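Sanity check. The docking grid for C2E depends on where the pocket ends up, so I'm generating a full predicted complex first rather than guessing from homology. Inputs follow.
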Amino acid sequence: MVRRTEKSIKKLSRNRWWLTIPIVIFLSICTYQLLVVSMRGLIYYIMEKSLEEDYLRASDLMEMYEYAEKNNDINVKKFLGLNEREWFVTDREGTILDGDSENTCGENSAVLTKMDFISEITVHEDLESDVLYISNGGLAIRYKKLFKEIDHSFEETPETELPDEMKDLSEEEMDEHDLMLVSRNLEDRASFPVWAEIPMQDGRIFMAKIFFRVDAGDLTVVVIAVAVLFLFLFILFVYLVIRTIRLRRKQKKLTLLYHTDEITGGYNWKWMHAAGERYLKKKKTAKMNFAMLDIDFDQYRNYCICHTVEEGEKLLEKLDEVIGNNIAKKEMSAHYGSASFAVLLRYDREEELLERVKALIGSLEQAAPGQRVRFHVGIDLIPASLNENGRAVKRKKVDLETLYNNANAARMTLESKAESAVQIFDSGLVEEQKWNLSVQENQEKALRAEEFVVYYQPKYDPRTNMLSGAEALIRWNSPELGFVSPGRFIPIFENNGFITEIDHYMIRHVAADQKKWLDQGYHLVPVSVNVSRAHFAENDLAEQIRDMVDEAGTPHRYIEIELTESAFFDDKKALVSTIRKLKKYGFTVSMDDFGSGYSSLNSLKDMPLDVLKLDAEFFRGDVEDSRGEIVVSEAIRLAKSLHMRTVAEGVEIKKQVDFLADQGCDMIQGYYYAKPMPGEEYEVRMKTGFKDPEAEKMNEEMDRKTEEAGQSGEQAGESI
Ligand code: C2E
Ligand code: CA
Ligand code: CA
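Predicted complex below; grid placement will be based on this.
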């Protein structure tokens, strides 16, 4: 899930905001091109319009020339001579026949077809013009020059002067000859010449200098048009830039929001998940060792109950800050959820890492002054990624979730610890997790299929060597998991609550077995059944047990209930009342594992128990330990003063048996007498009743010796 959302946020933050940059560049180029093209278009349009005008006037001049030639009109000829327009006449081959001007007509020519008043005209460049020239068969403009010229001509527009001869002509006469032709340098105009070919009727060509003209009005249109276009594009450009910046900011904000933890205000796991994986995959980090930590503020829930949830969250915020202050720049931390933090540390040596983690725990503990808080830390080591030659190679696959889960699995093993503690993950833990899973997967079916088997471990009176009791111990004969001893599954069932089913199962089976044996005439002794502490939450536990035993029809005196010492920590009142009820119903009640873990001397005071089972730990280690002996004998004495019987568990040596017998211990349950055994074997024990392992051993020794003697006799006989 995290991965999927992370992908979308990545996509979102990758949102091609930077694409706007090439777009803007592209648009700028387009704008420039568009400006050039539109300017050129406009100038051409304006020029061609003026060219059209001037071409028509030049054509008139040509007609006047033809007319004057035909009619030999001196006035007209005079006018032609006076006319300011430069012209000359050539034959078809281009030889000049007549002319009024210096020939500045260049070789390069172009055919203009755009003008709609005639199909086409041919123009030649004017060698004196710097602005217009012929290129690729068309007219081209040198822009810089053009503008310079325009500027220049606007600044220094000379007075329009009519030639003296013309000054006498009346206005009508001037109109008649279209004197506009003469007024070349009208104010606010700039003109640029080309030579136009005007065909004559007889095939000669009238060459006339005609002018492109630009006036201030035209220029204003061009400038306004260009300015509008430019402004439009500029606005577009600015809009795009602003939009990009805004989008980027929004993305950043959104990403930050997505990566911020709601409670601590620091980073959350989503951030660390993405950033951590990216970082660990970098080439430069390949040669470094990292450690993924799961730091859990143990009993956070209790803290919230004692204080308030708000206070609890404030503390989490503070813890996040403390972690942040204790890690280096390139290391990472995040609030994972509830009261857990994920931290990624760098380290060189494992011992140094552990020291650092312990120091960090110390700082965390100080975050709640005056309070006893504890932290459990699980660590998964991420060693440097090296190839066979010891060279660092980039980590290709990094799954931070798995690394955290491993750290978490290591941390979970500390759950029962009442102090702050650290645990490093190893592959054994994975196996343990797998085992846990398969046990839980199979539990229900196992119960239905009666895969759980009751084993009996006899208890003997050390003074008489007579069978005087037994403890029922569970075994799991599983087709999937094999023959499993309780140490491997009882703690799992205690954790997941299935233990209550197991205890019921055991009570039912033991009661049924006892009833069966009673009916078969065996000499019955009480059998004790373990009842887990999880049961004591139930008010009617005593009634439940009574009903189950009654269902089998077993007299209550043949059933004993063993309570573990840890059960005595829970609700004392409920426990006392259950014990009282059980006793009232006629069951024997014993305290299991007395002396292990926490001392419950105090609970002895209030609990009306029948039997005290001395924990096997008393009989481990040095047999000659006089202090140990003192403790055991005093415990037995204490039990006696409280009118309780004693059972010593886990006794394996004759010397201990003798000592316990001397001290007045009532029963011994240990390998010295017997290991836990299936019901059929236990039946044999019931039949015999008496067991003296020492005597059995001596008998066995004698048998062996006799056998050996017999064998050597045979051999001796053979050799004779
Ligand atoms: P426990 O109730 O203290 O049971 C005594 C354990 O000590 C048994 O282990 C027994 O086999 C072992 N033991 C007895 N004598 C000796 C000895 O001389 N030397 C050594 N080394 N060990 C000895 P087991 O059967 O593996 O049971 C382990 C624990 O599992 C039990 O400890 C009990 O806490 C739990 N358990 C077993 N069966 C049940 C059950 O039916 N219900 C519940 N709730 N717990 C059970
Ligand atoms: Ca027990
Ligand atoms: Ca025990």
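Relevant for the grid: The first strand starts at residue 87 and ends at 90.
Also worth noting: Residues 471, 530, 562, 592 surround calcium ion (ligand 2) (CB under 6 Å).
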